[in-house]
Each structure stands twice: as C-alpha cells, then as structure tokens.
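User: Could you go from structure to sequence for me? I need the amino acid at each position, not a summary. Structure tokens:
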C-alpha cells in the first residue's frame, strides 16, 4: 500500500538575503558555497546590491523579519553596518557580518582607516572580471544558442560546421571579447535574427572545401559514425561553402578566410576589423 501521503512535508526554508554596497558577488558566492553542504534543501538566496541608504537597510530587515529569513552582508560602510546590526537585533533577525570584524582588525593592525568604498576590489580587477564575463558569454552563446542575446555580442562569427567557430570564439573571449557564433546548416535557412544585427560586428568564416573535407573526415572518425556520408561528401561540402558565401554577401558581412591559418592569425584579423570599425580594444 502506498502510504506516502502520511509522510510530513518539509517546510520551505526561509530565504537568505545577501546585502552589499557593491554587486554582492562575494557574499553570494560564499553563501552558495555553504549551501552546497546541504544539497537536499533548496534555500532561496536573494541578493540586494548597491545598498547605500538607511532606508534600504530598513526594507531588507523588515522583509527578513516577515519571512524568518537570514541576512548576510558585506557592507564596508561602518554606519550602514551598525544600522543593520541594530535593526536586526531589534527585529529578532539573524544577521551575519562578513566584513566588519576583519575590517576592524586590519584597521588596528595597519593603523589606517578603511576607505569604505563598495566594489573597490572589482574596480581594481575590472579587466579580470570583464574577461571572465566574456568567457561565460561565449560559452552561453556557442553554436547559435540564445539568439535573443546576439545583439549584445561584440563579435558574431558565422560559418558552416567544422570551420572553427567555437575555438575561435573561445580564444577571442579569453582576450576579453564577447563573442557569439552561429552555425550555417545545409538546406536550413539562416536564422532571421542574423540579418537584423549590426553587420559590422558579424564576421563570416570561409574555408576552402578541400580542407573542410579533411576536417570533417577527422571528426567523423572521432565520432565512429558510419552514417554521415553526406557530412564528408566533397560535392555536398562544396555546395555548403558556396551557400555560406551567398549568405555572407546577402548580409553584407565581412569575410575572413581561415584556410591553413592558425587560430591566432584568424583572431588577429577579427580584432583588427572590429577595432578599426568601433575603436574598441582589449588590453
């Protein structure tokens, strides 16, 4: 007999609110690191960034008091930290200060007051965070995924299968460029959204059919897939490359020939074109 209805349902855990004067990334990461130790419980995590006013603190504490939630904060402003601690104590809210004790100790040891500027670490390491964001963007927008975000890309690479879109995208992203790549599939119309993009940011990747045959044959052997004759058929590949060239021409996209080129050379050509058009560069 099924008696599962007799089992009590676990109450939903209260939320954890991360409060920060910056974006809240450090506090959020720490909270999720701790929550990983409780994999069976789905604890809501709410991030409240850019807290600079007492009224914002009041709102957070009131919400936590109403839900029985926990507040974790990384506020570097001493006045806001003190206000949050007082309000939390008055309302019976558990509040954990991740910054205050260490700031106070360092101020004593170093004989210097902290500047109390939120987000300073991120500002000092902006290039690093931008590079990480670019890599995440390239991974999320590989192989034509999330077309609604393509307008946010700084570079959009377009080409047939095995032309090298993904490795070139990742190489550029490591250099700090937000890249999406879009595959052109035989006998499938090109995505309509491709032609609504700023054509100056769209780069078509061209390759000689003979080299593409070799690439695909190698890929076919790696996959141990005997049923991909059309994928490696020279005549079919020639037609695919020609169709891709027509799409490049239709969209007014600039084209880079990647035949027999190392990825560094192709990346340099992409960067050169985007830089000349928009004056953008990456350190």
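Assistant: Here is the amino acid at each position, in order:
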């Amino acid at each position: 007999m099924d008696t599962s209805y007799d089992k009590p349902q676990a109450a939903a855990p209260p939320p954890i609110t991360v409060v920060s004067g910056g974006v809240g990334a450090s506090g959020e990461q720490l909270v999720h690191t701790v929550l990983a130790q409780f994999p069976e419980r789905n604890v809501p995590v709410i991030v409240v960034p850019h807290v600079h006013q007492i009224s914002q603190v009041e709102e957070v504490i009131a919400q936590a008091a109403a839900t029985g939630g926990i507040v974790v904060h990384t506020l570097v402003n001493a006045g806001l930290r003190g206000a949050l601690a007082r309000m939390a104590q008055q309302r019976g809210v558990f509040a954990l200060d991740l910054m205050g004790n260490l700031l106070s100790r360092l101020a004593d040891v170093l004989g210097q007051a902290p500047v109390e500027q939120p987000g300073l670490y991120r500002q000092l390491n902006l290039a690093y965070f931008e590079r990480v964001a670019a890599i995440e963007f390239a991974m999320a927008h590989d192989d034509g995924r999330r077309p609604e975000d393509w307008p946010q890309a700084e570079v959009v690479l377009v080409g047939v299968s095995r032309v090298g879109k993904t490795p070139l995208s990742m190489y550029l992203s490591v250099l700090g460029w937000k890249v999406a790549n879009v595959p052109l599939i035989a006998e499938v119309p090109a995505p309509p959204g491709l032609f609504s993009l700023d054509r100056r940011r769209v780069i078509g990747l061209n390759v000689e059919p003979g080299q593409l045959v070799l690439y695909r044959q190698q890929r076919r052997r790696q996959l141990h897939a005997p049923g991909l004759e059309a994928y490696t058929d020279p005549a079919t590949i020639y037609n695919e490359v020609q169709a891709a060239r027509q799409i490049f021409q239709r969209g007014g996209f600039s084209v880079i020939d990647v035949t027999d080129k190392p990825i560094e050379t192709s990346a340099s050509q992409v960067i050169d074109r985007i830089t000349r058009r928009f004056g953008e560069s990456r350190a």
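One structural detail worth keeping in mind: The two ends are 67 Å apart (CA to CA).
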